[in-house]
Amino acid sequence: MLHGSGVARYLSEIPFWRPPLKSKPATTATLLVLTLFLVAAFSSSSWFHTTTSFFNTIVVSEKPKISVQKLEIPLNCTSIINQTQTCPKNYPDTFQTDQDLDSAIPNVFCPDYFRWIHEDLRPWKTTGITRDMVERAKTTATFRLVIISGKAYVEKYKDAIQTRDVFTIWGILQLLRKYPGRLPDLEIMFETEDRPVIKSSDYRGPNATGPPPLFRYCGDKETLDIVFPDWSFWGWAEINIKPWDSILKDIKQGNNRTKWIDREPYAYWKGNPFVIENRQDLLKCNVSDQQDWNAHLFIQDWISEGQQGFKQSNVADQCTYRYKIYIEGFAWSVSEKYILACDSVTLIVQPHYYDFFMRSMQPVEHYWPIRDDDKCRSLKFAVDWGNKHKKKAQEIGKAASSFMQEQLKMDYIYDYMFHLLNEYAKLLKFEPKIPEGAVELCSEVMACHAEGLEGRKKQFMMESLVKGPSTTSPCALSPPYEIGTLAAFLRRKINSVMQVKKWETGYWENLNKQ
Ligand SMILES: *[C@@H]1O[C@H](CO)[C@@H](O)[C@H](O)[C@H]1NC(C)=O
Ligand SMILES: *[C@@H]1O[C@H](CO)[C@@H](O)[C@H](O)[C@H]1NC(C)=O
Ligand SMILES: *[C@@H]1O[C@H](CO)[C@@H](O)[C@H](O)[C@H]1NC(C)=O
Ligand SMILES: *[C@@H]1O[C@H](CO)[C@@H](O)[C@H](O)[C@H]1NC(C)=O
Ligand SMILES: *[C@@H]1O[C@H](CO)[C@@H](O)[C@H](O)[C@H]1NC(C)=O
């Protein structure tokens, strides 16, 4: 009944892609797509060392003839004074890159999502950031992080959930090892809780004060919190999720082992449904004797998984379905990047929050949008569509996993942090200073004697340790979006989602006619 000829015909008639910028002249749309393509192409890390079939005429630059000697500086755990681990004094405070040696070596443009850095800092663009604004962010902050002359100091205000603060600070310390001496003096307030809190509506009107700049892992339309890569890029020790670098490699191998076409032709989700209503609503779509919405849904029980040594929860082994569902938890969910890296089509239930990279991904190009008010029927249609258009479905899966492997590789995570902190520091109207009672932190102080979580804390730190100063400069940050370009980009996003809704409605009308 479900694959009746009417529906089959309907599905095969759905075109894969219609330029959604209907109200605009075609040239704008074409230009935009071309621009996006160019930016994406040039920002792709492999660009300079591979020839691509698309622009055969473009001269591909060679690998540098002379290049900087890579310097490895292991942790110095012997710098102990008075039985306390201290920060060694001899880590270099400058470094040389290939670009410094040979100015002909081009500086690669950063991926497109870096341009949101300008948008996130826009509230302070004309006013700058005063000490008063920073101090007001203290109300909810987990810690204050200060960088002065390349050294990091942390003042802690409250306990974080699990090791979120530990691995976030660890990440910033690795950034300092990667680009020593390149980060300006600064002070940031960071909150490690899930949901953004700086409501933009509180900072409107003629008498409004400037909003406090507060860093966290996600944002939404109503708030001004500044988004920063989450702790799990360096590992989530409590649930045995390794640093992102290692996971990317595992998933790449896994994707090679289990081809899309050989995967289960259903939508898969495994997670904790108890954090939010919306996820419990999703569970209603699970396959049973009475219904089949093409969805196979499972509850993740972290406690019992932990007791079994996390054998069932290796994210790299979870790429065995053609479709994988992403649904937000209490806020954005860390699971997002692991799902998108799978080569499967990611079915994203209409999200409310964004992290630092998601905003530059496009529905239908990188993922498939799922309605949040009619999840089951939406899932059913998505999977039927994909199984009918296998080539297109695979392209969507591939676009997302390539994005993860290339644009979201660890080098770019550091570059994102580098540029965000740099741009932020440019706005500071006061001189950062070391707060009283703050401690100097460095990789040695955090890692040399780290213990706990069955050794995973130390293990993940050693695994994600930056070995020494970078031999290349950070990628080049593109200027802010032109208002028109950004508007067109967002319009394209909305139009794609509306287009899918229309196809979906047509699909169900056809099905109900039979
Ligand atoms: C080591 O401890 C002693 C006694 O507490 C103290 O007098 C001395 O200043 C400390 N040295 C350093 C370098 O902190
Ligand atoms: C470790 O640090 C101490 C104190 O800064 C220094 O004296 C020592 O030479 C360092 N060891 C190495 C191997 O760099
Ligand atoms: C702004 O401040 C002025 C002077 O204190 C006051 O008269 C006015 O009502 C305030 N406006 C708003 C919108 O709060
Ligand atoms: C993918 O698998 C093939 C054989 O199945 C192997 O030859 C190749 O090296 C693998 N590639 C990667 C990147 O693992
Ligand atoms: C969903 O259905 C599958 C197959 O019947 C079952 O194994 C699984 O436990 C169900 N999930 C939930 C959350 O009930």
TrEMBL record:
Protein name: Lipopolysaccharide-modifying protein
Domain of life (superkingdom): Eukaryota
The organism's taxonomic lineage, starting at the top: Eukaryota, Viridiplantae, Streptophyta, Embryophyta, Tracheophyta
Family matches, as InterPro entries: CAP10 (IPR006598), O-Glucosyltr/Glycosyltrsf_90 (IPR051091)
Domain (Glycosyl transferase CAP10) ranges: 182-431
Organism of derivation: Corchorus capsularis (Jute)
